[in-house]
Design a protein that fits this description.
- The protein has a five-stranded antiparallel beta sheet.
- Helices cover about 45% and strands about 30% of the residues.
- The protein is built from three helices and five strands.
- Strand 4 and strand 5 form a beta hairpin.
C-alpha cells in the first residue's frame, strides 16, 4: 500500500514570506511619501529651492535603470547658499526646468541631504522588496503547479 504524503502546508513558508514582503512594501510605500514630512517634524527645515541643473544617471551595476537627479540651490536658515542633489520621479523631472522653484526639506546639520516635498523618488529598498515579492509569487505558483501535476501523474 502506498503511503499518502501530507502536502497541505507545503507553501506555508512561502505564504508567510509573501505576506511579510507585501506588508513591508505597503509600509515602505507609505513611509517614503511621508519621509520629507517626518524629517520636518524632527527638526528638518523647509525651504524653497531653485533648480540649478538636472541630469539622468544611468545605472549598470547591480540593477539597471535611471536615477532622475535634480541639483537645487537654496538658502539655509543662516542665509548661506547651499546645494543638494535630489532624486525625483520621472514625471517631476520632466516638469522641472532651470530656475523653477521646488519645495524641499533639508537636514540643518547636513544641508546637502535634502528631499523634495512632492515628487520624491522611491528608495531602492522598495524596488528590492517588490522584486523579491515577484520572485516568491513565481516560486509559489511553480511549486503548487509541480505538486498538483505530480499528483496527477503518479
Amino acid at each position: 500500500m502506498k503511503a499518502k504524503t501530507k502536502t497541505r502546508g507545503a507553501l506555508s513558508w512561502q505564504l508567510l514570506a509573501l505576506i511579510a514582503l507585501i506588508l513591508a512594501m505597503i509600509f515602505m510605500r507609505n513611509i517614503t511619501g511621508a519621509l520629507p514630512h517626518v524629517l520636518k517634524a524632527f527638526g528638518g527645515q523647509q525651504a524653497t529651492a531653485y533648480v540649478a541643473s538636472k541630469h539622468i544617471e544611468q545605472r549598470f551595476s547591480v540593477k539597471f535603470g535611471a536615477d532622475y537627479v535634480v541639483e537645487v540651490s537654496f538658502l539655509d536658515k543662516a542665509g548661506d547658499s547651499q546645494y543638494a542633489n535630489i532624486n525625483v520621479t520621472s514625471d517631476t523631472y520632466k516638469s522641472l526646468a532651470n530656475a523653477v522653484p521646488i519645495a524641499i526639506v533639508y537636514n540643518p546639520s547636513k544641508p546637502g541631504q535634502a528631499y523634495a516635498l512632492n515628487g520624491q523618488d522611491q528608495p531602492d529598498l522598495f524596488k528590492l522588496l517588490f522584486t523579491i515579492t515577484v520572485i516568491l509569487v513565481v516560486l509559489a505558483v511553480a511549486e503548487r503547479c509541480r505538486t498538483v501535476l505530480w499528483k496527477k501523474v503518479f
